[in-house]
Structure formats: C-alpha cells, structure tokens
Amino acid sequence: MSLDQPQFQPDSAQLESQYEEFRDTFSRIQREVSKQIVGQQEIIEGVLICLMTGGHALLEGVPGLGKTLLIRTLQEVLDLEFSRIQFTPDLMPADIVGTNVVAEDESGRKFFEFQRGPVFANLILADEINRATPKTQSALLEAMQEKSVTVAGSHHELQRPFFVMATQNPLEMEGTYPLPEAQLDRFFFKLKVEYPSLDELDLVMERTTKREVPLVEKVCDGDQINGLEEIARDILIAEDVRRYALRVVLGTHPESEDAPELTKKYVRYGSSPRGAQALILAGKVKAILDGRYNVARADIQTVALPSLRHRLILSFEGEAEGIDPDQIIEHLLEVTV
Q: 336 Cβ partners below 8 Å, 6+ apart?
C-alpha cells in the first residue's frame, strides 16, 4: 500500500463505542478482583493498566498482603493460562524457559525435543523474583521484551497476551539478589503494596476466617485483552503533553539541562526511553477511564511514580542520605513546565 493512499479511520461513534467497551471491561475485571482482594484499589488498577498495555508489573511489599492472591484471582477472572514460578537461589534458566530433552520414537531412534517451561503461559507469577541469581533472572529478559524465547538457537514465540507479575520483599536482604537494571527496566510499573488500614484488615479477617469463599466470574479472554490493548493505543496525545512527558523523563538525567538540582545531586542514572513509553501508554489508559479521548498532563502526573521509580539509579550521596526515588519524581513534577 502506498504511503499516500488513504487509510481507514473509524468515525467518532465507533471510537466512542470502543472506549466504552474498554471502560466497561476494565471496570468489570476490577470489580470481580475486588471480591477477593480487600482495598488495594490503586494496586489492582495499576496491574490492569500493565495488562491492558502489554507491560509487566513488579509488586513490592512485605509478605501476607495479597500479592500472590491478586494474580491468582486475575487468572480466575480472565480465561487465560496461568503459571507460577517460585524463584529460589538454585533455580536455573532452563527451569523457566524450558530445555531440549532426549526423546525416542517408535522405531527406537533418539532425537531432541523441546520441553516447554512454565514461561509458556499468558499470566506468569514470578514469586519472590529477587531470591534467584541474576543469571536466572536474565532468563526473563527476552520473554518480557520480545514475547519470545530462544533455546539452543531455536526461536519460540509466546502466546499473547503475555503478562509477568513479579513480587519481592523490600525488607529481607539475606538470600536475595538485587534485580539488574536491565531487568527492572522491563517492568512497566513498580507498585508498592502498603499495609491495610484497620477497616480493611477487619474485612480481610472477616473474609478469610469463614467457611464461605467469595466466588468470581469470568469476564473476558485473551483475544479481548489483545483488542483492548489496541484500543488504548489509539487514544490521541497532543504534542505539548507528549513533550511534557519527555521533559519529565529527561529531568531524571543529572546531565540534562532539564534536570533540577535534586536530580543532579542524588541521581546517577536516569530513566530509559521505556519510562517515557510507560508514561504515555499509561496516560492513555487513564484518559479512557476518565471518559476522555485525549491525554492530559494530569494523566502523566498520576502515573509518573509507578512508571519511573524503579528506573532511577541513585548516586552515592542519594544512597547515603536514604533518598527515596519517589521524592525526586514528585519534585520533578512540581518544577517541570
């Protein structure tokens, strides 16, 4: 097709119908998940934004806050294949992606056959991901970025949607390995799971100490999720809003002219371009959920913390003074125009 040939553009009524479908499906999934997950509405919304944009989520929080239950409930709500990988220090890359094994046919002839690992699923729970060595963690790099794995020179495509939700404990340091920067950068959002309030904790006890367990209903399948991702990408973003998002990202780089003094003092390396992609794509989803058909600066500001907090590498001064990357991002949003 030539470049000057007119392409099909959906009319406003069709677009409105698509966006309404997106909001309705998003709300139904959120409502069903909330039947088993008490509170944590920001976490649920953040995980669903990652799922609807083809990204991945890193959840950080102390044990017992429902991180594992969240993705298990999500699997019950969505008609998708689920796989759990428990990361341990002795876990090997082949335990994740699979390996070639020797098989034998009816005539007795031996041959190599690829045995798929647990990464071949739609929803992957990478439980306590920082307990495995960097060598094992790196087994997810290709899968998370290219949606494929390569084993012994053979390329294997992963089925879409492909969503990784990893969990890690921020307190326990013994027997854990920090995630490499390349691994962190492949997570669309880093979400901090906070301890529940008194009322929420009371509701958790009420639900989990009785015989009855809340039941959830299936909402949609993989094809529908893939379709919703395409709808989200169609949302318009004005040039000034897009450039605002880019200035926020450049403000995380200490050598940039857009960087405030706080960045220059406490940050060693800033966000990669994936941070800008996360800001814009997540901003598009927030716009749809708010009933708008274009991205506003407020959308960028709302998603800035989960999009960028894991992409900032602090300097020695920042580490020594206990600076939280969230402080730097919040300051950036105040000074960036």
A: 244, 247, 248, 251, 258
Those residues whose C-beta lies under 8 Å from the C-beta of residue 250, and which sit 6 or more positions away, are: 256, 258, 259, 270
Residues β-bridged to residue 190 = 58
Q: How far is residue 249's CA from residue 263's CA, in Å, rounded to a whole number? A: 11
For the chain, domain boundaries: 11-89+120-234, 235-337
Q: What is the DSSP string of 29-56?
A: HHHHHTTTS-S-HHHHHHHHHHHHTT--
Q: Per residue, what are the HEC states of 187-210?
A: CCEEEECCCCCHHHHHHHHHHHCC
Q: Is 11-89+120-234 a CATH 3.30.1330.10 domain?
A: no
**Per-residue confidence of the chain (337 residues) as pLDDT tens digits?**
344 444 444 567 777 888 888 999 999 999 998 888 877 889 999 999 999 999 999 998 877 777 888 888 888 899 889 999 999 889 998 899 988 788 777 777 877 778 888 999 999 999 999 888 888 888 888 889 889 988 877 888 898 899 999 998 876 666 678 888 888 999 999 999 888 788 878 877 877 777 777 788 888 888 889 888 888 888 889 999 999 999 999 999 999 988 899 999 999 999 999 999 999 999 999 999 998 888 999 999 999 999 999 999 999 999 999 899 999 999 999 998 8
Please answer whether residues 279 and 304 qualify as being in contact, where contact means their C-beta atoms are separated by less than 8 angstroms.
Answer: yes
Query: For the purposes of burial, counting CB atoms within 10 Å of the CB of 224, is it exposed (0-12), middle (13-18) or buried (19 or more)?
Result: middle
Distance between CA atoms of 54 and 122, rounded to whole angstroms?
Answer: 11
CATH superfamily ID and name for 235-337: Magnesium chelatase subunit I, C-Terminal domain (1.10.8.80)
Give CA separation, 170 vs 46, 323, 335, in Å.
Answer: 19, 15, 30
Identify whether the C-beta of residue 212 lies closer than 8 Å to the C-beta of residue 205: no
Structure tokens at 70: 């969240």
pTM: 0.86
Are 44 and 30 spatial neighbours (Cβ–Cβ below 8 Å)? yes
Which of 8, 17, 19 shows the shortest CA–CA distance to 286?
A: 19
